[in-house]
User: Fold these one by one.
Assistant:
Number 1:
Amino acid sequence: MDNQAKSALVTGASTGIGRACVAKFAAEGWRVFASVRKASDGEALKAEFGDSIVPLIFDVTDGPAIARAATEVRAALGGRTLGALVNNAGIAVAGPLMHLPIEEMEKQMDVNVTGQLRVVQAFAPLLGADRSLNGGPGRIVNMSSVAGFSAAPFLTPYACSKFALEAFTQGLRRELMPYSIDVVAINPGPIATPIWDKAETVDPEQYAGTDYINPIRRLVNYMLERGRTGLPPSAVAEAVWRAVTASRPALNTIVTPEPVMQWVLGILPKRMTDRIIARRLGLTPEALEKTGQ
Ligand code: NAD
């Protein structure tokens, strides 16, 4: 990639992994277009990381706002390409599929999948699909998850969005080959960011009248514990940096505090994994009998 490009767009930059990516790219001397939803978050990023940060205000579900941001970035780049797009913005929706309000699933997919498509459609020209620009092609890094390979019960809406993001990454990479715009994914395991605190706002008691209440309580506690013991977001930012700057980046980079468990999960027969999860969470007919529900 042309080093002169030296500018990246990071979506969902206000907290967590996005914010760590802003810090990393700014420290490496890049100009960072940082998408946030509140002007005050943009100001906070500028105050902390300096004038190389250019806040953009958009929600990934708001097509017109994304298009306005792309116009702004095109003007700022003055005829050069954007070096990287880090599609990081995302939310985690939890709940048992049998009882999940349909709007919750729609929201999950709209933010984590269609949102990334809206951003790609607006910014792919600036990454080099517009061949009138100078500076060589940029690169796209999609923030997937280990949930893009394996679906935990009650986190299936989130896993659906990340499995979809894996397909999106693969198909987009193939479609952007004529422009030499590479597209790769990062797959974090548990990372200590606010996304896990938001799990506390998933009130398991809303499923109190269902057979799933006890397994859900167990899963929520497990998620909160894993969130607290997760890697720092800077570990993911380092992986994103390598994905953007390596001459031949890995198509998927797993970043997790539990590499061995991740590896084992990858090779165990899926029926065996099903049984292990069911025993841990109490998702067995025997456990259901015992609760007397
Ligand atoms: P976070 O909640 O700190 O960050 C999410 C960011 O996305 C925030 O800046 C938020 O404002 C933004 N965002 C949410 N909805 C948006 C919308 N509609 N439009 C624009 N921006 C929106 O959480 P995080 O852990 O830093 O998550 C960042 C990404 O990393 C997500 O895609 C998440 O799925 C992924 N991820 C996180 C973990 C983890 O353990 N924390 C693990 C794997 C993958």
Number 2:
Amino acid sequence: MTIQRMIRESGKIVFFGGAGVSTESGIPDFRSEDGLYRQKYSVPPETILSSDYFYAHTGAFYDFYRDKMLCLSAKPNAAHFALAKLEREGKLSAVVTQNIDGLHQAAGSKNVFELHGSVHRNTCLRCKKQYSAEFILKSKGAPRCACGGIVKPDVVLYGEPLDSATVDGAVNAIRDADMLIVAGTSLSVYPAAGFIGYFQGKHSVLINRDETPFDDRCELVVRGKVGEVLSDL
Ligand code: APR
């Protein structure tokens, strides 16, 4: 069965995506050959992107974060726009993403569960004042609030819990879906990767360049670029 046929037969599609959805927007993923975690650093990126490292070496965290995690010039690609269109047509009920780049909302998607937060939300640890990603990009060293407190990005660092309301929304959407599209993710980070286990609907499709642990558990595997596959719908 083709993905087009599955979509025609479905009315409550949920899309579950990862960094591979944004590579066609010029944002490298993490675990591919040219991914962020494959590049050589004195401290491994997974260590830098941890809660302990943020509080112990805030300046060094931000040097890496501004350089590698803030891609504010990136634009939505065909995958993001195709999903926003499916939502407008009433076919797609939610996007569940592990990405923090905000590109789904920039393409027009409304119901987006950002499991790992967003670079566009930044909060002063002392007075809770909100700051933009642009403020963080322009800052030097550890960004300071007007009150003197440190500003922290609302992204889930290693060692931090996911936002419970976001998790509940994502799991409920997946549980209620009649079709699940999983794309651009290695499904190697938990608890996020485990949420697709709540799917109990009819059609499931995986669109991923490399193999994943989910390949043998879904109805259709498409080895391709998610932007190209979704733009052909
Ligand atoms: N089309 C389809 N698949 C793609 C594309 C593309 N254009 N580009 C990359 N991929 C695939 C790669 O083959 C890879 O399997 O996307 C997957 C990306 O996997 P990861 O780099 O591991 O990214 P992700 O699964 O999102 O990582 C999960 O890890 O470090 C944490 O918080 C970080 O949210 C991230 C989480």
Number 3:
Amino acid sequence: MPPMTSTDSDTPTDSAAPAEAVGPLIRGIAVLRRLTDAGGRQSLGDLARATELARSTVDRIVRTLERMGYLRLEGRDAVLTPGLMELGNAYLAAARLPGLLGPYADRLADRLDESVSIAVDDPDGVRFVHQATRRRALSLSFRIGDLLPAERTGPGPLFAADWPESRWTRWHEQRAADPEDGRFPAVPPRAGAGVDTFPARAAHAREQGWSLDDQLIEPGLVALALPVHDPAGRQVCAVSVVSHTSRHDADALRDAALPPLRETVAAMEQALRLPPPVPPPAAPAAALAGWTAASKQELGPEFVESLARGLTVLTAFGEGRAALPLTAVAQATGLPRATARRALITLDHLGYVAQDGKDFRPTTQVLALGFAPLSRLTLSQIAQPHLAALAEQVHESASLAVLDDTDIRYTARAATDRIMSVDITVGTRFPAHATSLGRVLLAGLPPQERDARLARAEPRALTRHTVTSTAELSTLVKEVDRQDYALVDQELEEGLRSVAVPVRDRTGQVVAAANLSTHTGRRSLEECRTALLPALRQAAARIEADLHTAGRFARITLR
Ligand code: PHB
């Protein structure tokens, strides 16, 4: 790999960076961090100002990240996209914590009917890796990847009980530099809260083995946290039960939740004794190196290959691949050894991987690359850009809907022009039986449930074409299930025809349906099948790909 080119060396120079560090990777990560702190969206001009990079450099970085599927351009704004979550997913899979311990947290949340979360110690604070959320009273709800100031949380004192002196020094410096907690976008500012009492709470946590957050994050919010240790006795994470003073004050929460929380932690520590999974074979390697080379060929100077290669190094890690030597990273990515080595040196310098002897492993900081704002996206927000691109491609209106008892309800829409007598907006409902969206959603139900819904719907005729016999509808829905699409002609409104396909989650469950609607005068039934359906299927596949990446660890709201 060539050294930094002159066009890419407009810094800000990281004077502490090792000589072999990859400059474009440092700058690309600076752009991703800035976008994350901005909540996932920022104009290119503001990005250049905030990162102190030349506008032309920001443009090239953004084009590269767009090509990687990590962001998209919307007018003047760069917007993070769910594809970027593959980096955080790689860390979460490698760390094993959410996969292994998450189910225990979920069961405790069910049992107590309170929120339960798992957090890890991050050099910058306390970071969530799992959330089982049951928020009733008004309070903040944190997501995987969110970072909290350690001194304002339950887990913070538990982690700090093990901190070496150097970590305390870092913490004091960070607090002094940011007295208003401005570096924590997920929490309301509360100048100085918990700072003075933190060392004493850490000492207390060491003695007691538990720690309380009595409304330090937010008035009303209380949390009880316990540490979880690995077989070597190292604290790997903390589990918190989170409640509200309208149900428990802090002391009452401790009394009620401490015994079940202790049981849960014991079960988690047992689970951590299980042997780690056998490493799955590395992903097909040559494809990746080939992809970056082809992108370079196509985009020329607009594609910063060393940035793409450097970020890709993080995807070498995963389940059963928690710590890898350089050779394994090079193999998994298909990168030359020297390239992988310089990328790892750079990522180590920036704190995204840690080196332990010959092995490298991804750190909690990988979650700072977009994970928290992206895990807040709902399915309709994930679908929206894909629907807009589809509508633009075929010049027809595209929609997303979910099943709501016997109705469909629109959750996202990209309209080209108005072809219906009623204006469809998000929230509009129609009877499921008379729409392509509804038939796809009914087909996604278990067979008995389909027929129960159809019977309950008491299907009415909306035009002279509407099928109203439940027996006939049942047969039609079976057919839709077999073909995996529905084509409905003028059953909802005269002159309107539409074609719909399912959108499935990672488990194969139909969670929504996407459709295109058109006018009888514009497209024949045959054209709906030959011209619209393939484009619709491709768009649905893109929505599903994003949903599956986003939903691997985070719970995506299906609104
Ligand atoms: C949370 O999971 O929302 C949580 C956990 C610990 C705290 C505060 C909030 O101290």
